[in-house]
Amino acid sequence: MNRSNPSLALLTGASLFVSFHLLLLVFQRIGKLPQASTESKLMPDLRFYTTAGCHLCDQAWAMLEPIAKRKRLRVELIDVMDDLAAEEQYAEHIPVVTSTQRTDNLYWPFTPEDIYRWLM
């Protein structure tokens, strides 16, 4: 860079910055780079309380997961054995689905239709 002309150095740096970001956008559009995801920073829409070896939880998850994907809902899986508060509240009732948008919970047994109705 030209040290005798600070304006030229600043302009060159700005041009490189803009060029880099334009290139990044092009690569993202053609699918060569993954889109930046903010999902990990966002609160989940639903929480699914479960634990290892729970066959009812497996059945419930098999119904809930495709619905959540279809509706683009973020689901946090919580093992009640790893969370003392969750264990005290839900261990006797799992599988349980809670929502950040609702005050009532969805307790097992439920069907896909029950899930859809509960999400409305």
UniProtKB/TrEMBL annotation:
InterPro entries: Glutaredoxin-like (IPR008554), Thioredoxin-like_sf (IPR036249)
Bilayer-spanning residue ranges: 6-27
Domain of life from the UniProt record: Bacteria
The keyword Ligase is annotated on this UniProt entry: no
Record keyword Membrane present: yes
Pfam families, sorted: Glrx-like (PF05768)
Matches recorded under Gene3D superfamilies: Glutaredoxin (3.40.30.10)
Keywords linked to the UniProt accession: Membrane, Transmembrane, Transmembrane helix
Protein name as annotated: Glutaredoxin family protein
Organism: Spiribacter salilacus
